[in-house]
Amino acid sequence: MNTNTQLLPAGGASIAPTAFRGMSMGMERATRRAVEQVQSRAVIAKLTEDGRSLLTQVALENVGALTALEQHLISIAPLGEARYREIVDSYTLGASAAIRRWQ
């Protein structure tokens, strides 16, 4: 069992041991668990946002590259324009849907 009397919330701040002064052992344990749950939710929220951001960045880069390729292909093989646009639009819609679903 960890007998450390300091909690280290996300961000590096700490809760002074005096914060638990006057609490029963049971109440202190319950408080520590509650703080850990809050910290856990904060970490999960941050990771979720980081994931959504990364997914969005990758999708934007891919859409840009695919659009440039689409434009190039239209210039050298114009008869395929409708097909190129359909493929790039399909990718774009799929990427957008994936970003919307990300939670």
In short:
By secondary structure, this protein is an all-alpha fold. It is 71% helix and 0% strand.
What is the count of β-strands? Answer: 0
How many helix segments? Answer: 2
Spell out the helices and strands N to C: HH
> What is the beta-strand fraction?
under 5%
- The biggest beta sheet, please? none
Helix proportion of residues, in percent? over 70%
Rounded radius of gyration (Å):
25 Å
Give the mean pLDDT.
Answer: 87
What gross morphology would you assign?
rod-shaped
Distance between the terminal alpha carbons, to the nearest Å? 34 Å
Question: Which class do the helix and strand fractions yield?
Answer: mainly alpha
Low-pLDDT runs of 5+ residues are: 1-8
Structure explained in plain terms:
This protein is mainly α and 103 residues long. 71% of the residues lie in helices and 0% in strands. It contains two helices and no strands. The chain has helices at 25-76, 81-101. Mean pLDDT is 87; it is low at 1-8.
Task: Present the secondary structure layout.
Elements: H1 25-76, H2 81-101
List keywords for this structure.
103 residues, mainly alpha, disordered N terminus
